[in-house]
């Protein structure tokens, strides 16, 4: 921190020995067994360990089971011989902050808000899902009382419904994950944010398993709603290509749109991404430009490179490369790329994004169906909501129909109906799309009803959600257009949103699906970023712009900072976007 002050650079704090954040290198779980993480595990009768407490038993399919509370034992190699901690416990989190943040403050607090701008938290979660050898759901000793106060009944009487399709299981599951999410947020994220706010630090970083709605349910509950309590909400988006066990990063639009939607709606300064890890030492400037442009087009405005190692000795040489530092033969040329990326991030952080569609996030539908038993078969009924949500996100993006996600927990606090528009935070939308959904929250139902009655444009895929807060209910949404498929919904939105950018592939005459667009209003001007997300194929495109452009239209060269006059005829211009090419 002293050296950063001397050299006019920044020294950011990292809050953990590795990941996930919270265990303070092992100190917190070793201080008190009450701080160690808990979970509910489903075991065949008689197989409980000394770390398990049987809470209830159930017979299914001729097999007797115990549902047990398991307290994580010490001894985990990953956690330095200790264990993870319970981030739904305010006491455990308070101890983590004492062990970590308060020590930083004592050592270098005079640099806070100066050469130390902020602190990064890495992959906190309410459940270390893959550390268990049995079907598992999150748990905390603080959860039963919190649940009763929030939901009005005793969840300990309904534990079998979290695993098996018995009783009114959809209601129990919805309530359970709703309460666990809220407890995690109130115990960990908000106190952490408040401490940073009081100490002039930017809180940033990212939560575990942001990639899909099913993953969030397992590990963190509702990642998007946590972003309210981060100064720079963030994600990580690692991996470059398709390899066994890894998903192609360019299919994972949901992760990026979640964070950029919340940042735009809540007026946060930056949307943050830890990127370029897990892609091999052979990564090039081309690959980083390709990925960086893709993220910028989706709304990422601050890039954190993963990673730069002082030394590559031993294990470090193979620790999730690439290593983006002086050991690389291209390091002397890094400044040019860094300047490009700095201008790119500035371009998509200034002003306000132009968006007119709100896409409802069907997370509570996944909660209502999710059981850890489904995971053995690569998920089950949850996928009926997770998969089409990801698909409609991709299709809208490819069609240049820009949108934000409507997260139900954020909408409950920040949404209202104004005229025939729905407003979330500082953004207003004239069209709302509900993808396939089983359940919505009662506050969402009330909001959508008012919006529909005011004449708002509402497109619903697959019929009205039959459940409200996990219970059967009839929604009153007059005038809503109900369609059968995601493709139909995108087609209707395409006809409703006529005054928008079109990018046509001159070779096919069709929409240039691989070109993503990000438009912003910045005072008296409008800027449009075009990114060709195909790293193999050039796109020869005709761009048609909404409204009218006069003689002051220009191209901004992100490599040099120079401006060049753009010839626009009849509201359109031609451009050849090379593989991974872009244009501002």
Termini separation? 36 Å
The mean pLDDT is 95
Largest sheet: 5 strands, parallel
Using only CA atoms, what is the Rg? 25 Å
Let me know the number of strands: 30
**Structural class designation:** alpha/beta
Strand arrangement across the biggest beta sheet = 13-12-17-19-22
Number of helices: 16
Fraction of residues in H or I helices: 25-40%
Structure report:
- This protein has 16 helices and 30 strands.
- With 584 residues, it is of the alpha/beta class.
- The strands form 9 sheets. The chain has a 5-stranded parallel sheet. A 4-stranded antiparallel sheet has the order 3-4-2-6, with no helix packed on it.
- Strand 15 and strand 16 form a beta hairpin.
- The longest helix is centred in the first third of the chain and has 30 residues.
- The protein is globular.
- The chain starts with a helix and ends with a strand.
Task: Give the gist of this structure.
It contains 16 helices and 30 strands.
Please specify the SSE layout and strand pairing.
Layout: H1 2-7, E1 13-14, H2 27-31, E2 38-44, E3 52-60, E4 63-71, H3 90-99, H4 101-108, E5 118-122, E6 136-139, H5 143-151, H6 169-198, E7 202-206, H7 213-219, H8 223-226, E8 234-237, H9 253-266, E9 272-275, H10 285-298, E10 302-305, H11 334-347, E11 352-353, E12 357-360, H12 363-369, H13 383-398, E13 403-406, H14 408-414, E14 415-418, E15 421-424, E16 427-429, E17 431-434, E18 439-440, H15 442-453, E19 457-461, E20 467-468, E21 471-472, E22 481-483, H16 486-496, E23 502-505, E24 515-522, E25 525-532, E26 539-544, E27 554-556, E28 563-565, E29 572-577, E30 582-583
Helix pairs in contact: 3-6, 5-6, 6-12, 10-11, 13-16
